[in-house]
Automatic annotation (TrEMBL):
Residues 47-139 form the Methyltransferase domain. The keyword Ribonucleoprotein does not apply. GO terms for molecular function: methyltransferase activity. Keywords: Methyltransferase, Transferase. This is Methyltransferase. One of its GO terms (biological process) is methylation. InterPro entries: Diverse_substrate_MTase, Methyltransf_25, SAM-dependent_MTases_sf.
Length: 287
């Protein structure tokens, strides 16, 4: 967790409904790649920590007998449940509203534990050590994220790229220059160097796997508005009574950038680090 910032329940308040439309999906082939790498037989259990509206959990649900998603936001848990019903997998899924720091929460043991762009919000040392003890012998931790590379040029795509710089500037105009996060701010952003944390907790590895993206995708104005409102730093509640004005200005920015209302992006690749259970972690000294 970031020094000087404390988690609060408003961090992702109101964003869940925008995820499915606003966030780009993980690369096609993620489930197949993990099935091949981990040699899954459909009989294990997956714990997805910081599951949000079930994006990764539902992508991987076919690889396990049961998938359990944990998230502290009630809106995320409700949306995950709705998405599971729509996908016809409600009987294989369980959604638990809890902070990662409250684990193990009586949830039992798991074949795999996943963090998909969520680990940076947690007390990382505590959570890493806890989930290691929740893994069955031979279990793995999956750290999943978009591949952080420069996307190919969009010159050959049919529509303009989203005006990212203009959108960021508009958010700063309304919310100020320092990144917002719930009731607090993150002047230095979220922490990195997950490898040090996982190693300290007793994990070994990692094995790195990349699932390629690159496919051209078309996005419209509603998609990009949903993307903005799905982010913690531009969650709808942060704008207060200025939300309608911000959305109107955002739509004008988008319309100016593409009079057709259509934009082209490329599907990002997905990066997965597979960490193995390793030896028991060395207990931390209380301070």
């Amino acid at each position: 967790m970031v020094d000087g910032w404390e988690w609060d329940e408003t961090l992702f308040s109101g964003t869940a409904a925008y995820y499915a439309r606003g966030r780009l999906p993980y690369a096609p082939g993620l489930a197949q790649a993990l099935s091949d790498v981990l040699r899954l037989d459909g009989q294990g259990r997956l714990l997805d920590v910081g599951c949000g509206p079930g994006t990764v959990a539902l992508t991987l649900v076919g690889l396990f007998r049961e998938v359990v998603g944990v998230d502290p936001d009630s809106g995320m848990i409700a949306e995950a449940g709705r998405q599971a019903v729509r996908a016809g997998v409600a009987g294989k899924t369980r959604w638990v509203r809890a902070r990662a720091e409250e684990l193990p929460a009586g949830l039992g043991t798991f074949t795999a534990v996943s963090f998909a762009q969520s680990f940076h919000w947690m007390d990382r040392d505590l959570v890493a050590a806890t989930v290691r003890d929740m893994l069955r012998p031979g279990g793995v931790l999956l750290h999943i994220s978009d591949l952080r590379t420069t996307p190919p040029a969009a010159a050959d795509l049919p529509h303009p790229a989203p005006p990212r710089a203009a959108i960021d500037e508009l958010v700063r105009k309304y919310l100020g220059p320092v990144r917002r996060a719930g009731r607090g701010t993150l002047p230095q952003g979220t922490p990195g160097d997950e490898a040090t944390v996982f190693t300290r907790a007793g994990f070994t590895g990692p094995d790195r796997h990349v699932v390629p993206g690159g496919e051209p995708l078309t996005r419209d104005c509603d998609d990009l508005v949903a993307e903005v409102f799905s982010m913690s730093f531009s969650a709808p509640h942060l704008f207060g009574p200025h939300l309608p004005a911000f959305e109107a200005d955002l739509r004008r920015v988008l319309q100016d950038a593409s009079p057709s209302g259509r934009f082209s992006v490329r599907q990002p690749g997905t990066e997965v680090f597979v960490w193995h259970q390793g030896q028991a972690a060395v207990p931390r000294t209380a301070t």
